[in-house]
Amino acid sequence: MKNAIRTIPILFLLTMTPGALQAATTKAPAVKPNTLAMQKALKLWVFEKGGEFVGDALGLVDYKEKKFILKCGLKNTTTKNIKGVRGVLRFTTLFGEYIGDLVLESTASVPAGRSVTIEWKAEGKRFTKQGFEKFQKLKLEEMKQIWVPTAVVFTDGTMLK
After folding, report:
1. Full-model pTM
2. Domains contained in the chain, number
3. Which is more confident, 9 or 135?
């Protein structure tokens, strides 16, 4: 019996990975009671990333000054027209290691049952330096995208929040 008690702490230590430790220290986007309803009402995904540019600056530039473009699809699965949306798009590796969060907001109209394409320009400062390097290096197929909406506004004035 003494040997069994000694193995419990060892098994616990063996199951802890660096990724699990990092995930435990990274705050997840806030999930509200209506999050599932909002995720069902509006699907969001990035289908193209790129356009890394620095603007007019020359030479070496800090990652915080770099900008990139995300082309996204929004699909309204409801019977009402959507007038605006707000939420957090989290990027992780395929293994769940945190890359970064982007707070997104759009007032693009999304007709009931239809899809639209929108483009967001974002700055590298939205990520940590390591997160931005991973984000630049990995292809979209090598990342997970987790959409956590915080508000969906319909043209009839109703809102999921």
Report:
1. 0.74
2. 1
3. 135
